[in-house]
Amino acid sequence: MRTNPRSVFELDVDESNGCFRRLFVAFHGCLYGFQFCRPLLFVDGTFLKERYKGHLLAATSKNGLFPLAFAIVNAENQDNWMWFLSQLLKAVGSGRRLTFVSDRQHGLLDALSVVFPNAHHAYCFNHLKRNLIDKLVGLHTNYKLSLIKILVKCAYAPTVTSFQHYMEKLRCIVGNGRVDSILDGLQNDKWANAFFRGKRYGEMSSNAVESYNNWIGRARELYITCMADMIRVQIMPQLSNRRAKSKKWTTKLCPIMEKKFVDSLKLAKSWDVIVTSDTVLEVYSFISSYVDIDCFRESYKESVYPVPSSERFDFDDADSSIIKPPITKKQPGRNKKKMIPSRGENVKQIKYGRCLKYENHNKKTCKAAI
Prior knowledge:
Layout: E1 8-14, E2 19-26, H1 28-34, E3 40-47, E4 55-62, E5 65-73, H2 78-92, E6 99-102, H3 108-115, E7 120-123, H4 125-135, H5 141-156, H6 160-174, H7 180-184, H8 207-215, H9 224-246, H10 255-267, E8 274-275, E9 281-282, H11 293-299, E10 350-351, E11 358-359
Parallel strand pairs: 3-6, 6-7
Antiparallel strand pairs: 1-2, 2-5, 3-4, 4-5, 8-9, 10-11
């Protein structure tokens, strides 16, 4: 807080034993920049690999990959999501109506509706597709792919009529009630464009926050203090490099959006401009101010500043402010090092040289005769 004033830093300690419970961090440089990003946040949680385990919860925006806030908690549950979102509300305020995109994590749905009652919540469409595939176990692959294509048409349908057409088609093709259990449990206004009332700016999945989890992959193996510091060290050059890069741009829009605009302009040459009078014409506005180059530069204007290492702080060993590590119980088996795949997600198959079969096995588990 000394080196990065106006940041939001919340440390929660168990008062009964002085042990660490959870930590929330949102640097001022990121909070300032988010004001000029689209009011769209991707939220997700991922497990930690260090000695004390726990989970990392994160909120990420997009102007490029724009990390906003993260928290280290003991578990991914409703209580911790409620605490994380409450700190996030304190950090970003309630001035803008936000849209959240998530994988419907345990405890997140209820927490969002309580802390951000006026926000819109969109479900990650990739996650829904994997859930549908999971319900279709045993069916032919081509058949499943054809059903997924219809589900995609349901999600992207621009009108309620077209959505209902494709949804009825989907139910009829399956015909055995397998899909009904998952579709009936969904709220259409959370995943289908025809019903969604917020602005999701074409973002149909939560890939941004999954990219964030990969981006901080090495930090997840470190102890809590080192983990938080490494994330800060990764954010610092990202803000600085993009600030320097954007100074060289000469276009009105960000380069990627400028190219999309030019391509769209070529398609729109045949469109008519409707004349109402000598001074009034009807045209269509379809460029968001958030993709303007000035907005991009403003979002990366502020910096995240270095923080002295703990060895350089003046600590008194007898000081009661020294926080003990969290109390954890060692889980049986080997430590997990890889992300647990979502249900329905494809797992890479390995070809073993002896049996020449693509299966998830090796020399020890192969049952082929020698």
